[in-house]
Amino acid sequence: GEDVEQSLFLSVREGxxxxxxxxxxxxxxxxxxxxxxxPGAGLQLLTYIFSNMDMKQDxxxxxxxNKKDKHLSLRIADTQTGDSAIYFCAPEGTYNQGGKLIFGQxxxxxxxx
Amino acid sequence: NAGVMxxxxxxxxxxxxxxxxxxxxxxxxxxxYWYRQLPEEGLKFMVYLQKENIIDESGMPKExxxxxxxxxxxxxxxxxxxxxxxxxxxFCASYGGVYLEETQYFGPGTxxxxx
Lengths: 113, 115
What we know:
The complex is a heterodimer.
Chain A: E1 4-6, E2 9-13, E3 18-24, E4 31-37, E5 43-50, E6 55-58, E7 61-66, E8 71-76, E9 85-91, E10 107-112
Parallel strand pairs in A: 2-10
Antiparallel strand pairs in A: 1-3, 3-8, 4-5, 4-9, 6-7, 7-8, 9-10
Chain B: E1 5-7, E2 10-13, E3 19-24, E4 31-37, E5 43-50, E6 53-56, E7 65-68, E8 75-79, E9 88-95, E10 105-106, E11 110-114
Parallel strand pairs in B: 2-11
Antiparallel strand pairs in B: 1-3, 3-8, 4-5, 4-9, 5-6, 7-8, 9-10, 9-11
């Protein structure tokens, strides 16, 4: 089945850029999502990219997709302390898999003032 | 437009008891997914339901777990004879069912603690 890998921790200083990386195994995903989870909370959809795109920019967020290498990244510009959270990469399963999301373990982003 | 609602938000059960988790999807959504998040792990798919039908239950443990989504009312995830290893956060997500045009919207989760 699909496997999604993320590094577990990332620490940056306030104002710097953060880059969270994700690799996945199933190249047939149509949409690939990024979710944010704050402690004790549910998942907040941050952004997503359609599989025929290489890049998508949404305010401070930039998503890069390298389909050949099955690599997805999320860049957060001007990182703030409020961005501290766990970030999940989640490719969507194919239609015959019912569109279920396959989550990585999550990257815990720590932003230091 | 109300979002996805889950209740209870926190549930404490003793080993051997039953746990019932409820999920009310967004208005107009007829598809529900359940995911489980074990401590310090990512979310794992459990089951995908449409109204009155189980579409994919490949992620459900074979015993003690069941799910339903009746014609009227919320989706229910039921865990019989709970064990400590069932302690986790259980999230449901609803989806409008128009493939390629929508995403899944997550509820706040139910945190189950088995003593």
